[in-house]
TrEMBL record:
The chain crosses the membrane at residues 12-28, 34-50, 57-75. Gene3D superfamilies: 1.10.287.130, 3.40.50.2300, Histidine kinase-like ATPase, C-terminal domain, PAS domain. CDD domains: HisKA (cd00082), PAS (cd00130). Residues 637-753 form the Response regulatory domain. It catalyses: ATP + protein L-histidine = ADP + protein N-phospho-L-histidine. One of its GO terms (cellular component) is plasma membrane. This is histidine kinase. Residues 393-615 form the Histidine kinase domain. Its main location: membrane. One of its GO terms (molecular function) is ATP binding. The modification 4-aspartylphosphate is found at D687.
């Protein structure tokens, strides 16, 4: 396409020029005749010269002028026929003159055009020079700013060319490396030998691809230490040449921090895996995303069964409970929520804290069943202690009443009464005796019953009760006895131990109305190794655990805290007094141990007596108690001190019946006054708790200051243990518990007046 166009142009341009020449010649011819025409022709030539190639124009114009003049003469021959040859020559001469002028004019115009073009070229050259100078200045300014920025960076910064040479390096390169590298290979000398080859390869690959590249490697600093750096390089074109700005950032401390954080995380994870407490993570939908082994144990399921489930999905009964509300509280408040929840699925108390977390919730769970049991035991002990104190006070007052009733009934036994009256007296005496037994049970619960502890073998005690247990339990209950070998002895009141085991067996029988299985077992346990013992809040040491387990109906959890309270029973109305377990608990506590229970509805019950073991003890044979015979009157004078008039009257009658002379006093100060004026008083019988600001003990002390050998018999509704705990009884003193028979009163008085050692009240 280009060659035909050029050929066409070579043809068209000359033709156009010839045509232009003809036109100009015609105009010149007109100008010869008309001067104004020459002016116009000149103007047209100037315009033509400015629009086309000057050489073609000159040649074309000259040729056209000559041809045009000749043609004009030929055309106008009719008008010029009269001219002479001379005129014709003259005209031709003029025509050539005019053509010369035209040529000169055209050349002048062309030269003007040339000068214009040259001037324009010089102008453009000057502008380009100015632009180049401005660009150079701007580049120089940018380089200055870039260098200043690079120098302000504390990390090494350098500019690397494609051939590996370093076109620039900031001061940090020298300060940090201790060298001034001019080539990549020198820089690579600072790389750790183990990293050098792959760093070189990575750098060459980045340079070849002309892309951003980076790597982590160990570089040697000026001190000779290798530290981990992140090196980054970015390509930049400068004048068509690609160079790489590079920087090295020391991340050794960051790496150490990350490694330390990773170690800490591993340690924390190991701790979470090892602790017994449960830790779970949940997402915003309350689905479990992490669970440690402790949580698996508490929740009673393995890890796979827990993950990706909500707690309500796993345990539907939780819906609408305090645990579900705790999650809502965390969402609304943004703060942790705490609760203690009874997990029905495990029959355990769980202390739960729900806290907000970035991904949802964090749950902390602790099995506090043992702590709750300990708290319950302490609360129960405190409550029972309060009840015991109240019971002890009431028992004292009841014993005073029973003393009067029993004493009166016994006094009537010596009279000849009609048959009906004698029967009524016997009923009164029996009721008084049963009342005394009830009071003894209350005192046992209140831990104020007199005990006679002795080293006792659990094996002998249980085996010795075998026949009694078989008769009591009946044929529908199978009994198994499992006692560990080499059990140490326990120091307890054997009779009270038998009574406690019998009470537990009867309770087990009543819990199995359709029959079942009863297991009696004994084991040695230590508070140092047995968490169950520690949970009972017992002193540190070894204990013999005597347990009675049944397969009965079990006991509801809400009833367990009240189980050892006096007069509380789970049996139907009229089938229980509510004192059996209270007596057993009182006996165990008074013996230095306790009574515990584990039970659940439908799963039976286990009652365990925990009794302190003794390292070595010899069984002491106790002499059988003998009933004192009724002695004859001795004539001795007795000072009877009792604030209760009825009790004082009955005792005075009993003592008088025994042949003693009785002097009565209602208060301790009154008794002291009588002692001062009655040297014939041979013995003082005094109640312990009396009004007036002076107790029976203080009376005894004051009386024995004046008469050290004066015998004193203390009478009270409280137990001997309560009186002797602080060394209450001294030499020449004895204690008699209310209510008592006249024979017991006679035996104690006789023993004191005869100089025997203090005795104890008989049952």
């Amino acid at each position: 396409m280009a060659e035909p166009a050029q050929r066409q142009r070579r043809i068209v341009v000359p033709v156009a020029l010839i045509a232009a020449g003809l036109v100009v010649t015609f105009l010149i011819d007109l100008a010869i005749q008309f001067p104004i025409g020459m002016t116009i022709a000149y103007a047209l030539l100037v315009i033509a010269a400015m629009r086309t190639d000057r050489m073609s124009l000159v040649i074309g114009t000259a040729a056209a002028s000559v041809v045009g003049i000749l043609t004009a003469e030929l055309i106008d021959h009719s008008s010029t026929a009269s001219l002479t040859i001379t005129e014709t020559e003259h005209q031709v001469s003029r025509a050539f003159q005019v053509a010369g002028v035209v040529i000169i004019a055209v050349l002048g115009v062309a030269d003007l055009r040339r000068r214009q073009l040259v001037a324009r070229a010089h102008q453009e050259r000057d502008s380009s020079a100015l632009a180049l100078e401005g660009t150079t200045a701007r580049l120089r300014e940018e380089q200055t700013r870039t260098a200043a920025l690079a120098e302000s960076i504390p990390s090494p910064v350098w500019l690397m060319s494609q051939d590996g040479s370093l076109a620039y390096a900031n001061d940090a390169v020298h300060d940090y490396l201790g060298i001034d590298p001019v080539h990549l290979e020198e820089w690579l000398e600072t790389v750790h030998p183990d990293d050098r080859d792959w760093v070189r390869q990575a750098t060459l690959e980045g340079v070849t691809s002309r892309t951003v590249f980076s790597h982590e490697a160990r570089y040697r600093n000026a001190a000779g230490d290798y530290r981990t750096h992140v090196v980054q390089a970015a390509p930049m074109k400068v004048g068509g040449i690609t160079q790489w700005w590079s920087t090295a950032i020391d991340i050794e401390d960051l790496r150490s921090t990350q490694e330390q954080a990773a170690r800490t995380m591993r340690e924390h994870l190991q701790t979470l895996q090892a602790i017994g407490d449960g830790v779970i993570l949940l997402d915003h939908g309350q689905r479990i995303t992490y669970v440690n082994p402790g949580a698996c144990t508490i929740l009673g399921r393995d890890r796979d069964a827990l993950l990706h489930h909500t707690l309500v999905e796993l345990y539907p009964y939780l819906e609408g409970t305090a645990l579900e509300r705790a999650f809502e509280e965390v969402v609304h408040t943004g703060h942790a929520s705490h609760l203690v929840h009874y997990a029905k699925f495990a029959a355990r108390w769980i202390d739960i804290t729900i806290a907000p977390a970035p991904e949802g919730f964090t749950g902390y769970m602790t099995d506090v069943t043992a702590q709750r049991e300990l708290e319950r035991t302490r609360e129960q002990a405190t409550r029972l202690e309060s009840i015991g104190q109240l019971t002890g006070g009431i028992a004292h007052d009841f014993n005073n009443l029973l003393t009067v009733i029993a004493g009166g009934a016994e006094a009537l036994a010596d009279d000849d009464l009609p048959a009906h009256s004698a029967e009524m007296r016997a009923m009164i005496a029996e009721a008084a005796d049963r009342g005394a037994g009830l009071i003894r049970s209350l005192l046992a619960f209140a831990r104020r019953q007199p005990l006679h502890p002795e080293p006792t073998s659990i094996v002998e005690a249980v085996v010795g009760m075998g026949p009694l247990l078989m008769r009591t339990l009946g044929d529908t209950i199978a009994v198994t006895v499992d006692i560990a070998e080499n059990l140490p002895l326990v120091e307890v009141d054997r009779a009270k131990l038998d009574n406690a085991v019998l009470n537990l067996a009867i309770n087990a029988r009543d819990a199995m109305p359709s029959g079942g299985h009863l297991l009696i077992e004994a084991r040695l346990s230590s508070s140092r190794a047995d968490g169950a013992i520690r949970a009972l809040d017992l002193p540190e040491g070894d204990y013999v655990r005597l347990s009675v387990t049944d397969t009965g109906v079990g006991i509801a959890p809400e009833l367990l805290p009240r189980l050892f309270e006096p007069f509380f029973t789970t049996k139907p109305l009229g089938e229980g007094t509510g004192l059996g377990l209270a007596m057993v608990w009182g006996f165990a506590s008074q013996s230095g141990g306790t009574l515990s229970v584990v039970s659940a509805p439908g799963e039976g019950s286990t009652f365990s007596l925990h009794l302190p073991a003794v390292a070595a003890a010899a069984a002491a044979a106790a002499a059988p108690a003998t009933r004192a015979s009724r002695p004859s009157a001795t004539g001795s004078t007795v000072l009877l001190v009792e604030d209760d008039a009825l009790v004082r009257a009955v005792m005075a009658a009993q003592l008088g019946g025994l042949g003693y002379t009785v002097v009565e006093a209602s208060t301790a100060p009154q008794a002291l006054s009588m002692l001062e004026g009655r040297p014939d008083i041979a013995i003082v019988i005094t109640d312990i708790a009396m009004p007036g600001g002076m107790s029976g003990r203080e009376l005894a002390d004051r009386a024995r200051l004046a008469r050290p050998s004066l015998p004193v018999l203390c009478v009270s509704g409280y137990s001997e243990e309560a009186l002797t705990a602080d060394g209450w009884l001294g030499p020449g003193m004895d204690y008699l518990a209310k209510p008592f028979t006249v024979h017991e009163l006679s035996a104690h008085v006789t023993r004191l007046l005869g100089g025997d050692s203090p005795g104890t009240a008989t049952a």
